């Protein structure tokens, strides 16, 4: 469960990882684990802690697909869009997920329940099509099962 | 007490292995049967997952794919003594898909408990390290050179030469960096080793460290593998407790420590110089080579960057000798390769074998054709940057040079099968879109080329000036192939041009309609 952003908690998280050699990514991961995202307000604090410019911090955050600037919904569904899943009907599944949640990839459903994100390979290519729901692997998905999973998460 | 084995590999978890294990536990409790459920990695026969194995006097008897609904009937059939059931597969090692393999790197995967160092040792683990210590650093490097091992991540560079270069380089601190950013679609061998036999990777890194004089190691793991992450964290801690890592590893006088670093969803970070930038905490921008990482790598120090499977191949090479390993394979591709079958294939799974099987044998014979039952139309080998092969090229042997001769690559060994419903113009379009999405942006051919390539293929798919636009794409692919800084822009022409060359009808479809 993530917590709302406060400057004090943000600083605490940053300080806990500041000592690591090349701490940028570990700090960003820790912030996202705590707050569900890397809030804009954290950027100057990270820059200060690591003695780098705010532009550099922004550059790192924006380079990596994983980091969000806004908290996600209560659940995050990462649906694989890569070739092995395409070969098993992944595109149909992607369209179904968007329709079921009334979102495009990268958005959160209107009720705040599920954020739908694309992912390019989960290493589950031998049980395609696949997805991760809050880190739990799901394989051999079909439209019906995916819709059931989405309904379960929305409850 | 009967012992049953149920995988906890994420491929098995994805199809319900945890739920099946829980159902067995509660059914056994209800029936008052003492049952010891042991969680292992996966054997890699994924169409049979969740596959459970029962320990009997005749060996491990396998059953699969097991659903929760099968648990009661399995117990009724007396599976705890290897009883007959419609899901019974027989002794695991005798299943043809497994029996035909040469399992060197994956010898323990699916058999041992991933986090038990006792189990690891009982099944031959650390024998390579013991032999390595007896050989000494120079001896290890020579053994790896002689084995003919080439980088299993995709580039196929001789591992021994890389180690020799790093060993001879001057530096106050040297590093072993394990590239566990397994981003290629269709590949999961790294994941299986990290989840199923993590000490093997650790042992390989320790041996590499001793060989080149590095005391520090990093594993750069992709964030899309949360389960592998949990297992690696626990495995590193267990290895430290067992003195497989730390000060004077196994009493040898050599120090070696490993830190785990998690990526953040950038495909390009699988490229070694981009990975080093990312490890150092920056945007994963590709570095120009030279200088080579072996001279000027992590934090400017001599660094060996090796793929998980390259490092995991090392202990058995050192233990059994270069000649033993080199005797498998063909031409300049020596040893074994874990081939990973995925996508629309009847028998998806991991098949470790010496190089030289033909693509047709792999897809039709081992893979059993498509899962949909329709004809196989195209096979993409080597990830999103690998070429699409038509049936006409199914006589190509699985070998670095043979695939290169057909403007393709074996890459990390992923084989993704498509049936005859595939639209190859769409696949070519996707390859360019993916490159545009993942380009680090440092070099122009990749940054601009991928965007323009995707736009041009989109026009072709709409039927706009097809012949002229195809010429433009080919010209662009040449620029990208020869002008890009790394393999992302440099190899995306493989899937694009192979689709155009081998499946031209898909690019003229709209015009014909």
Structure explained in plain terms:
- The complex is a heterodimer of chains A (155) and B (513).
- Chain A is of the alpha+beta class and 155 residues long.
- Chain A folds into two domains: 7-63, no CATH class; 75-154, Glutaredoxin (3-Layer(aba) Sandwich), CATH 3.40.30.10.
- In chain A, 45% of the residues lie in helices and 12% in strands.
- Chain A has helices spanning 7-17, 24-35, 42-50, 54-63, 83-86, 90-101, 143-154, and strands spanning 75-80, 114-119, 131-133, 136-138.
- Chain A has a four-stranded mixed sheet.
- In chain A, a hairpin with a 2-residue loop joins strand 3 and strand 4.
- In chain A, helix 1 packs parallel to helix 3 (42-50).
- The mean pLDDT of chain A is 96.
- With 513 residues, chain B is of the alpha/beta class.
- Helix content of chain B is 42%, strand content 16%.
- Chain B is globular, with a radius of gyration of 23 Å.
- The mean pLDDT of chain B is 97.
- Classes of the chains: A alpha+beta (155), B alpha/beta (513).
- At the A-B interface, helix 2, helix 4, helix 5 and strand 4 of A face helix 1, strand 12, strand 16 and helix 17 of B.
Give a brief outline of the structure.
The complex is a heterodimer of chains A (155) and B (513). Chain A has 155 residues and is α+β, with helices and mostly antiparallel strands.
Question: Which structural traits does this protein have?
Answer:
heterodimer; A: 155 residues; Glutaredoxin; four-stranded mixed sheet; 7 helices; elongated; B: 513 residues; alpha/beta; Rossmann fold; Ubiquitin-like (UB roll); five-stranded mixed sheet; 16 strands; globular
SSE topology:
The complex is a heterodimer of chains A (155) and B (513).
Chain A: H1 7-17, H2 24-35, H3 42-50, H4 54-63, E1 75-80, H5 83-86, H6 90-101, E2 114-119, E3 131-133, E4 136-138, H7 143-154
Parallel strand pairs in A: 1-2
Antiparallel strand pairs in A: 1-3, 3-4
Chain B: E1 2-7, H1 10-13, H2 17-31, E2 35-40, E3 52-56, E4 59-63, H3 71-76, E5 88-91, H4 96-99, H5 117-122, H6 127-135, H7 137-147, H8 159-168, E6 175-180, H9 189-196, H10 198-212, E7 216-221, H11 226-241, E8 257-262, H12 272-279, E9 303-307, H13 308-320, H14 322-326, E10 329-330, E11 333-334, E12 336-343, E13 349-354, H15 359-366, E14 376-381, E15 388-390, H16 400-405, E16 414-419, H17 424-438, H18 444-461, H19 466-483, H20 487-491, H21 493-502, H22 509-512
Parallel strand pairs in B: 1-2, 6-7, 6-9, 7-8, 12-16
Antiparallel strand pairs in B: 1-3, 3-4, 4-5, 10-11, 12-13, 14-15, 14-16
Helix pairs in contact in B: 6-10, 6-13, 7-8, 7-10, 9-10, 9-11, 10-13, 17-18, 17-21, 18-19, 19-21
